[in-house]
Amino acid sequence: EVQLVESGGGLVQPGGSLTLSCAASGFTFSSYSYNWVRQAPGKGLEWVSYISSSSSPIYYADSVKGRFTISRDNAKSSLFLQMNSLRDEDTAVYYCARDPPGAVIGVSFDYWGQGTLVTVSS
Amino acid sequence: DVVMTQSPLSLPVTLGQPASISCRSSQSLVYSDGNTYLNWFQQRPGQSPRRLIYKVSNRDPGVPDRFSGSGSGTDFTLKISRVEAEDVGVYYCMQGTRWPRTFGQGTKVEIK
């Protein structure tokens, strides 16, 4: 069974840092590309970042570029999101979502994790 | 960025009746490989999103056949032939043809 399990969320002050993790199981992690998608409380979905199976290319939404860093560890079947200089507007549930193997432009988001809540507040 | 516009944003429906959600993109979603990367997602209350439809009209495994997707270019539709209680939630369209990937605002489906 495909599983994606996010962790690392919590309460952080504005300007602070946090690292999210997404642990994968039930499939060959290294063959797939991944995304982070967030959802502010009561709001819609916003794509945040993408990393390909080879770790290149990597893309970011303009709203997080320069502050967030996506990475992966194939040996540990894990995806990460390092978040720095956090702002109030980064408060959201963060989901990891898998892309099927294939081109950078293609079918996307076939499996999602359950999400982890990040709250940025003083 | 490609702007995805859904309508309506709220859709009260009677059980057993059909429902239709429109999604329009600000640019054509046809990619150079000839495919159109338009997905539909369902988010039930308190749950993670789940993909229902990919490449306009392809149902994901386990998705009931009462869900269907159609459209081309910039104009797309998700239809539910007969709404059931378990269909309550928010539905999002999303384009994967151009970076950044963008979602529609979401359409909340509720039972009258």
In short:
The complex is a heterodimer of chains A (122) and B (112). Chain A is mainly β and 122 residues long. Chain A is 0% helix and 49% strand.
Which secondary structure elements does this structure contain, and how are they paired or packed?
The complex is a heterodimer of chains A (about 120) and B (about 110).
Chain A (H helix, E strand, L loop, with lengths): L2 E5 L2 E3 L5 E8 L7 E7 L5 E7 L6 E3 L7 E6 L4 E6 L8 E8 L11 E2 L3 E5 L2
Parallel strand pairs in A: 2-11
Antiparallel strand pairs in A: 1-3, 3-8, 4-5, 4-9, 5-6, 7-8, 9-10, 9-11
Chain B lengths: L3 E4 L2 E4 L5 E7 L12 E6 L6 E5 L3 E2 L7 E6 L2 E6 L8 E7 L6 E2 L3 E5 L1
Parallel strand pairs in B: 2-11
Antiparallel strand pairs in B: 1-3, 3-8, 4-5, 4-9, 5-6, 7-8, 9-10, 9-11
Overview of the molecule:
The complex is a heterodimer of chains A (122) and B (112). Chain A is mainly beta. In chain A, a hairpin with a 5-residue loop joins strand 4 and strand 5. Chain B is built from no helices and 11 strands. The radius of gyration of chain B is 13 Å and the shape is globular. The interface between A and B is medium-sized, with 23 and 27 residues.
C-alpha termini separation of chain A: 40 Å
Note the total helix count of chain A.
0
Low-confidence stretches of chain B: none
What oligomeric arrangement do these chains adopt?
heterodimer
- Report the count of strand segments of chain B: 11
> Low-confidence stretches of chain A at least 5 residues in length (pLDDT < 50)?
none
Taken as a percent bin, the fraction of beta residues of chain B is over 45%
Distance between the termini of chain B: 36 Å
Q: Structural class given helices, strands, pairing of chain B?
A: mainly beta
What is the overall shape of chain B? globular
Task: Please state the CA-atom Rg of chain A, rounded to the nearest Å.
Answer: 14 Å
Largest sheet of chain B: 7 strands, mixed
Largest sheet of chain A: 7 strands, mixed
Give the CA-based shape of chain A.
Answer: globular
Structural class, from helix and strand content of chain A?
Answer: mainly beta
What number is the mean pLDDT of chain A?
Answer: 96
User: What is the chain-wise order of helices and strands of chain B?
Assistant: EEEEEEEEEEE
Task: Name the helicity range of chain A.
Answer: under 10%
**Helicity of chain B, in percent?**
under 10%
Count of DSSP-assigned helices of chain B: 0
